[in-house]
C-alpha cells in the first residue's frame, strides 16, 4: 500500500538556508543550553549552528522557519531572518568584536529543533538559578 502524506511541520534537520528563524538568548544561558543539547544529542538530536554577538552578550540558535510564529519563552526572542545578512558556509573567522559562529553550519549541520532548544533553555535557566543561589 502506497501513502502520499505531506508533512507540513518545520523540518528540524534541514540544512541551513536563507530563511531560517533565530532564537537569541543571554550568552550564559545559551552556553549552558549548548552543553545540555550536546550531552543529550543521542536522544534528542544535535545542536545546530549557533551565532555569538561581538560583545559576547548573546547567542543565537538557528531554528526552522516558522518557529518565530509560536515562540514565547521568557528571556529569549525568536525572529524571522528572511535571509537578511546571513551567510552560510563562510569559512573566514570573524574579526575581533564582530558577530561570528560559535558552532558554524559546516561543523554541526542541521538547525536546532525548537522543542529541544526550549527544553534545554529551561533546564539551563534552572541550573543557573541554582548556582546563583548557592553563593
Number of DSSP-assigned strands: 5
* Series of H and E elements: EHHEEEEHH
Share of residues in strands: 15-25%
Query: Taking all residues together, what is the mean pLDDT?
Result: 82
Distance between the termini: 62 Å
The structural class is alpha+beta
Helix content: 25-40%
As laid out across the biggest beta sheet, the strand order is: 4-1-3-2-5
Instruction: Summarize the main sheet.
Output: 5 strands, antiparallel
Poorly predicted runs: 1-15, 89-94
Give the radius of gyration: 16 Å
Number of helices: 4
Principal-axes geometry comes out as: globular
Explain what you see.
- The structure is a single chain.
- By secondary structure, the chain is of the alpha+beta class.
- The protein is built from four helices and five strands, in the order E-H-H-E-E-E-E-H-H.
- The chain has a five-stranded antiparallel beta sheet with strand order 4-1-3-2-5.
- Helix 1 (27-39) packs across helix 4.
- The relative contact order is 0.27.
- Mean pLDDT is 82; it is low at 1-15 and 89-94.
SSE map:
Layout: E1 21-26, H1 27-39, H2 41-44, E2 50-52, E3 58-63, E4 77-80, E5 100-103, H3 105-108, H4 114-133
Antiparallel strand pairs: 1-3, 1-4, 2-3, 2-5
Helix pairs in contact: 1-4
Summarize, please.
It contains 4 helices and 5 strands, in the order βααββββαα.
Key descriptive features of the protein:
single chain, 135 residues, alpha+beta
Amino acid at each position: 500500500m502506497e501513502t502520499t502524506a505531506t508533512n507540513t511541520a518545520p523540518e528540524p534537520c534541514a540544512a541551513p538556508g536563507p530563511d531560517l528563524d533565530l532564537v537569541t538568548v543571554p550568552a550564559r544561558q545559551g552556553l549552558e543550553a549548548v552543553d545540555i543539547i550536546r550531552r543529550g544529542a543521542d536522544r534528542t538530536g544535535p545542536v545546530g549552528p549557533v551565532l555569538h554577538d561581538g560583545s559576547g552578550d548573546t547567542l543565537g540558535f538557528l531554528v526552522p522557519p516558522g518557529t518565530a510564529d509560536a515562540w514565547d519563552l521568557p528571556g529569549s526572542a525568536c525572529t524571522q531572518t528572511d535571509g537578511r545578512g546571513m551567510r552560510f558556509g563562510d569559512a573566514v573567522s570573524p574579526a575581533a568584536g564582530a558577530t561570528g559562529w560559535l558552532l558554524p553550519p559546516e561543523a554541526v549541520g542541521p538547525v536546532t529543533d525548537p522543542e529541544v532548544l526550549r527544553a534545554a533553555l529551561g533546564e539551563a535557566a534552572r541550573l543557573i538559578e541554582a548556582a546563583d543561589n548557592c553563593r
